[in-house]
Each structure stands twice: as structure tokens, then as C-alpha cells.
Amino acid sequence: MGKILIATDKPFAAVAVAGIREIVENAGFELALLEKYTDKSQLLDAVKDAEAIIIRSDIIDKEVFNAAKQLKIVVRAGAGYDNVDLVAATSHNVCVMNTPGQNANAVAELVFGMLVYGIRGFYNGLPGTELKDKKLGILAYGHVGRNVARIGKGFGLKQYAFDAYASTVTIENDGVKALSSTEELFKTCQIVSLHIPATPETKKSINYDFMSSMPKGAVIVNTARKEVIDEEGLAKMFAERPDFKYLTDIQPANHAELLATYPDRYFATPKKMGAQTAEANINAGLAAANQIVDFLKNGNEQFRVNK
Ligand code: 3PG
Q: For the chain, which domains are there?
């Protein structure tokens, strides 16, 4: 039977790997594991005889597809698949899927972990502020955005969202006020949480104009992608607005400079931690394994993202 490879630079919890192994082996496949690889050559070597690969934010580009001669499917255990070259996948006749929603609660919980840390002055012993009654803007109302709204309700936040693809009814049924543009969201909300994917349209879309229109005490939380932020605009915002804080799970290119210059207003996790919980690893990892087995055995393409 064919080989299913887990290729994760950032490893899953052991319990998730054990669960994936059970699904894969019960279905009659062999499981191979490549974790914490330090060089792309290790990935290129590991994919040679793999029929399927489970990845996280690992880069799967043309070179990987060229090396993976037996490959039929790649499943990104998670939401964003901007790390996979979909055009190359299609030209190699490989199906690409994600596991939407499976790690959403973990990411949403981290939003609040970072927010409380941020508005309490990074626990510096001085009086900070509270979330209750502040206006939270949720940019994109997908799985993570919805979980943020659910948790935000408990904090007593006044919640707003803008999503070009979600209906007003969907958003307002959750007790969240639907706004009509990104511009309106930034103007209205003191806190904005980003949940847009990295696409050619969204790259650098969070620019200085949006940031600088935020009310006093502005906080942006980014658990989405670093690419969506205009980093020059971010630096300008920091320089011009002493009230501004940026809390991110994905370090921007100017991370070291921001950390050195604004240690009391800039926070970034050392490594992307949003989906790094045992529960999210189990949910997304097991979903990925089940989707692969169902695809290889029954041709089910339900979560396919490439054409
Ligand atoms: C996702 O797109 O699912 C999240 O950004 C999590 O990414 P990770 O699996 O690399 O932690």
C-alpha cells in the first residue's frame, strides 16, 4: 500500500500523530514522519515515494511537486493554503485540500490571550485597560472570525465585522454588527482582529490609511498572515501614534527593529502559535488523515481547493 507522509516543520502534538497513524494504518497505508526538518533537501527526499502528504505552513512549491513522483494529494492541516503552489499542483495532477475550521477555536483563543496581555501593558505592573465595552472589529467572518465573536461576547466587547463574502444576516445573527467596508471597520473600532487570508488582493492591504484612522488606544491583533500588513505603513503608524499597539502571531520582516524600538507596544510570538494546541493538532491532523483516506479509497474531493 502507498505511503502517507506527515511533513511538518512545526510538529503536531504526539497524540495527534498517534491518531493520524491509527487512521492511516487501519486503512492499510504506511505512515512516514518528517518533523522539524532544517533543510529543504530533507523534504525533497521524503516526498519521493509519498502518495499523500499532510502539511501545515510548510512550503510546497514546484520543486517539491517535481520530486514527488507518486503524489496524488496534499492536505494542509489547517485553513490557509497560501504555502502551496496550486497551479503546480494542478499541472502535476495533484489534489490539494485544507481542513477548514478545525483549528479555528485555538486561533481565536490566542487572539484574546494576546489582547489581554497587550492592553494590560504586557504585565508591566502598571494599570492597563479592560476589554469590556471596547469596540472590537473582526476583519473577515470565517471560522476564526466567528469563534472570536463567540469568545468576545463573554468579554463584553461591542463587536463589529466586515466580510465581503459573508451576509449581513450571518454576521448579525451572532449579535455582531455588520459594517460595509474595511475602511468603516478601522474607523469605528479601537481594536481590530485580522482574519483575512493572504491572497494577491489582500497583500499589504492593511495600510497606513486604515491604521491611522483608528480611534485612540488603537490595537491591531494579527493571527492571520504577515503578508496582509503593509510593513512600511505599520512602522509609520508606530512612529506617529504613541497610543498604538500591534500584537502579532506572525513576525513581520521588521520584527527586530519594532521590538527594539517599541518594546512596550509591539508583541510577537517567537513562532506562530495560533493553531499550536493539542486539540487543534488533533482536529486538523485527524481530519487531514481521514480526508486523504477517503480521497485515495473513494475519490472524495469535498475539501479540494485547486481547480
Ligand atoms: C492556518 O492557516 O490554519 C493557521 O495559520 C495555522 O497554521 P499552522 O498550522 O502553521 O500553525
A: 3-102+277-298 (3.40.50.720), 104-268 (3.40.50.720)
